[in-house]
């Protein structure tokens, strides 16, 4: 079944809440419309959490499959994007913890820092490029849950309450992890200026 609303921008088409209600009722086009509306931002979030990686596409797809399979558990249909983002964040944390364990056991090579050249301007000053590579190396070495909190707060711009919801943790835990991440970054900056 096709609908003219599928091809309209989010601001002109049915709201997320309406699409969720329709998807719950079995309207496949509504699920597809939700996916098309939010896939790009969810992909961007996954990319910022783990960098260019062979698993980004699978993580995004798996997050949407999980979301659509559990759509009846979504309390506020208008918050679909945030809900899928939370699913992605938790799945990413599990993936990164599993990779770290496999690397410790010698069953997988350690993850290299994210490749930042793909999002840097070719005109970026060389000293800025060097500093960004160093920062991404520090962030990449952080525990996955700490890294996720830092990126969700400082890069994605979420409030502390939103970060708590996205990560499925308490506000106090988010504050503690953010303080830990920022302390690591300050230490790195202190070492770099010595």
Chain-wise SSE layout:
Layout: H1 16-24, H2 28-50, H3 56-69, H4 80-104, H5 126-141, H6 144-155, H7 160-167, H8 171-192
Q: Helix share of residues?
A: 55-70%
Structural class, from secondary structure content? mainly alpha
The CATH class label of the largest domain is Mainly Alpha
pLDDT < 50 stretches: 1-8
Question: Which radius of gyration do the C-alpha atoms yield?
Answer: 19 Å
Strand content: under 5%
Overall average residue pLDDT: 86
**Counting H and I runs of at least 4 residues, what is the number of helices?**
8
Task: Kindly describe this structure.
The chain has helices at residues 16-24, 28-50, 56-69, 80-104, 126-141, 144-155, 160-167, 171-192. With 194 residues, the protein is an all-alpha fold. The chain has two domains: 9-110, Rna Polymerase Sigma Factor, Chain: A (Orthogonal Bundle), CATH 1.10.1740.10; 112-194, Orthogonal Bundle (Arc Repressor Mutant, subunit A). Helix 2 (28-50) crosses helix 4 (80-104), helix 4 packs across helix 7 and helix 6 crosses helix 8 (171-192). It is globular and about 55 Å long.
Put the structure in a nutshell.
With 194 residues, the chain is an all-alpha fold. It contains eight helices and no strands.
Give short descriptive properties of this protein.
194 residues; Rna Polymerase Sigma Factor, Chain: A; Arc Repressor Mutant, subunit A; 8 helices; 66% helix; mainly alpha
């Amino acid at each position: 079944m096709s609908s003219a609303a599928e091809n309209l921008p989010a601001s002109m088409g049915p709201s997320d809440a309406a699409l969720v209600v329709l998807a719950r009722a079995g309207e496949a086009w509504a699920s597809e419309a939700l996916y098309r509306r939010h896939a790009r931002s969810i992909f961007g979030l996954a990319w910022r959490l783990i960098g260019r990686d062979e698993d980004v596409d699978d993580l995004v797809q798996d997050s949407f499959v999980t979301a659509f399979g559990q759509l009846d558990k979504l309390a506020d249909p208008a918050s679909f994007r945030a809900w899928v983002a939370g699913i992605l964040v938790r799945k990413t944390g599990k993936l990164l913890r599993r990779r770290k364990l496999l690397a410790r056991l010698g069953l997988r090579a350690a993850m290299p820092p994210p490749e930042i050249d793909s999002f840097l301007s070719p005109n970026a000053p060389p000293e800025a490029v060097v500093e960004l590579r160093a920062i991404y190396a520090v962030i990449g070495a952080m525990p996955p849950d700490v890294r996720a909190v830092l990126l969700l707060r400082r890069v994605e711009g979420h409030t502390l309450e939103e970060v708590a919801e996205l990560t499925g943790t308490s506000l106090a835990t988010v504050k503690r992890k953010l303080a830990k991440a920022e302390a690591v970054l300050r230490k790195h900056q202190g070492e770099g200026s010595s």
